[in-house]
Design brief:
It is built from six helices and nine strands. It is α+β, with helices and mostly antiparallel strands. The protein has one domain (3-47, 71-206): Immunoglobulin-like. Strands 2, 3, 5, 6, 7 and 9 form a six-stranded antiparallel β-sheet that branches. It has a three-stranded mixed β-sheet with strand order 4-1-8, with no helix packed on it. The termini are far apart.
Length: 207
Amino acid sequence: MPAKFSLRNMAIATGGSLLFIFSLFPASGQASPLQALLAGGDINPQGLKDRPAGSVRPTITMEEQIRPCYEEQGTGARALVNVLGLENVEGNIRVQIYSDDPEEFLESGKKLLRVDVPVDSLKMQVCVTFPGAGTYAMVVMHDRNANGRADILTEGFGFSRNPKLLFSKPDHDEVAFSVSEGVTEMDVSLNYLFRLENKDRRRRKRR
């Protein structure tokens, strides 16, 4: 049975919090912008244990990657991103940056830059160097199996300014942020599908 039908049946059984995932699996069977763009257009809703050909294998360490954000002599607009809520030490952290144009947010081929860093700690940081000062939007993914795909059921996702994730991807104005010359430090919290489901169940029990 196709994955989208299995997910739809599961949501009927478990309730509202999984409606957020329906926005990632449109009824037409086509990948949504969030699916396609977090991981270069390849979708793997089941999550692969083995990395296929074309896996992402960045060789830079976190210490090397974040160095530009700690260099006092560095120039340009940069952001030091603290990735919060990592569930385990495996795979990569992927950061994608979009412009201040709402029409380009999560649209195919419209990202300005992408950074992949191997996860070596539960307290990951990523340094992003922007084309210049201005307004941008950020998406962060925990690519746990480093296969370069958005494995919706097993991997974590977050956005700049940490909008509340409900039934669809956030609007551009919920995630847009400004950077100036120098370093801006910011936190991005990851959300995992079943972590969201467990929180929703706890809220229902307290009512």
